[in-house]
Predict the 3D structure of the following.
Amino acid sequence: MRLPISLFTLTAAGTTAFVPLPASRSTALSAAVNGESAKGSTAEVTTKNDSSSTKKFHYEYIARKARPHFDILSRTVTDKDVPLIYLDSGATSQKPGAVLEKLDDYYKRVNSNVHRGAHTLSREATSAYEEARDKVSSFINAHSRNEIVFTSGATEAINLVAQSYGRTNLKAGDEVVLTVAEHHANLVPWQMLSQEIDGGLTIKYVRIDPETGCLDLKHMESLLTEKTKIVGFQHVSNVLGCINPVKDMVSMVRDKSPNAKIILDACQSVPHMPVDVQELDVDFLAASGHKMCGPTGIGFLWGREDLLNSMPPWKGGGEMIDQVTLEGSTYLPSPSRFEAGTPAIAQAVGLAAAIDYLTSFGMKEIEAYEHELAEYLYDQMKQVPGLTILGPPNGKQRVALCAFTHESIHPSDLSTFLDMEGVAVRAGHHCCQPLHQELGFSHSARASLYLYNTKE
Ligand code: 7TS
């Protein structure tokens, strides 16, 4: 069956049948964007009570269960009141009712400052804030709650490492290995640090392998030396949609650059799959709450406790000190030493509610469902004439995110046309300008999905 703009019918809730958009919603792009309907994909799981072998299993129940929790998904947009189809979760996820209610309840019943009052509200706010830390800690399997530093997001977490660990431990001529695929949040802080150091750092970038569409690991190996002090890379690319083989990359770094600390940008993985810091064996990990059903303004840095305690604070003020005299100050251990001033208390409480929400589905189950979506999205987009999808081909290494260009429509126009149809996709360089340059494009459009998106 040939359907007008079928690929962009991905999220209308309802039946499992493939539903074409009404003609009025499809005219703008129908000439350029056409595709075949694909059969629903399945994840294969072995069930214990089926000794015969493997059973096909659909995880779509996750989206059907999740969608009613997100009021925003049932709103309409544009002056034609078309239903919203939200395909921009890579930029920020929507927030379920449970998170919104928790924020509301916090401000209505508990609101107070933390760590500084013996009164009931302050005690309650402190416990709620610290319980959020416990929740993040067990969500990523940290060794200790003291390894979780709340930040405003992944960007601030990476800046913290550059400004605290980097400024103290890196000197002129030291090498930093990043990848061309990094988000600006994992490029600019290191370039800024280099500028601050007299003589500068040597920053090297792992390139993309044009054969695989993913990082060129042989090239990475050739860049690592004994002088490498920092290696920074993403777990999942926000443009290529590929899952990097973190464990292989870590053992390569440990082998070739034993003096290097590894920082993992887990912004696009923590919301979508189980992430275990002990298993990954990195030194630092950064993530943002707003991409995982939590509020904006909160994220976290994970680092090993001894490493964090060896690093100086990078911001001074209340909450982070041990003693202050007019001559000087001493600081509390991690995490307090990195949390100067009144923290984002309500946002941390909201993040804890988001973690509860995600774990109520199970991260393995969310990952399995999104893998179904990922395959379906890629299959559908692949059939659209004139589209180039960035990153690796369909397979286990892809998440439910596709950045793409069209041979005759500019990405911004594509996203504007799609917006007229109610479809929210992002266009631009997605804060990955060097990656786009490397791939030979200035911009791309991007559809990024989450647990509440369905195939229809
Ligand atoms: N790292 C990656 C891999 C990201 O995708 C983003 C945000 C960040 C870091 C920065 O996160 P923040 O919460 O501190 O801003 N990525 C995107 C995106 O792809 N579209 O909008 C934001």
